Amino acid sequence: MSLRPQLLYALTLLGYFGIMVLLPVWIGWFKPPGLLIPPVAIALLALPLFFALRGMLHARRYTVAWSLFLSLLYFTHGIIEAWSEPVARWGAITEVILATCWLTGGIAWIRATSPRRHPPA
């Protein structure tokens, strides 16, 4: 892999693992949810991330591709929280930024590593 795909993959992982770290810190520590106890809220939001963990770590294109649908879930969650909760706005904006890194980095990485773009010699 050349330098550009490595940087794009790093951007993808930054967004993915950033959200994985942000959720427990944000929900469990700084802004506990009103209706759910924090461990339940963290489990509901963080559990989908673990379905893609192995494939993300092994740079599997198929896993990265379908995980981008998950990034849209966290992007939407961040937008809704930023709009509705002024107290939690910093965490929500951080979530939106990380989800955007994950989405754009993943799309660009998949395109950069496409077998069709690099025909065999």
Overall outline: elongated
As a whole number of angstroms, the C-alpha radius of gyration is 16 Å
Mean pLDDT over the residues: 89
Oligomerization state: single chain
Order of helices and strands, N to C? HHHHH
Coarse structural class: mainly alpha
Q: How many structural domains in the coordinates?
A: 1
- As a percent range, the share of strand residues is under 5%
Q: How far is the first residue's CA from the last residue's CA? A: 16 Å
**Strand tally:** 0
Largest sheet: none
- Percent helix among the residues? over 70%
Which blocks of ≥5 consecutive residues have pLDDT under 50? none
Helix count, DSSP H or I runs of 4 or more residues: 5
Protein name: Putative membrane protein
Pfam families: DUF2069 (PF09842)
Transmembrane segments: 7-29, 35-53, 65-84, 90-110
Keywords: Membrane, Transmembrane, Transmembrane helix
Overall description:
- This protein has one domain (3-112).
- The protein starts with a helix and ends in a 9-residue tail after the last helix.
- α1 packs antiparallel against α5 and α4 (61-84) packs antiparallel against α5 (89-112).
- Helices cover 79% and strands 0% of the residues.
- The protein has helices at residues 3-30, 38-51, 53-57, 61-84, 89-112.
- The protein has 121 residues and is mostly helical.
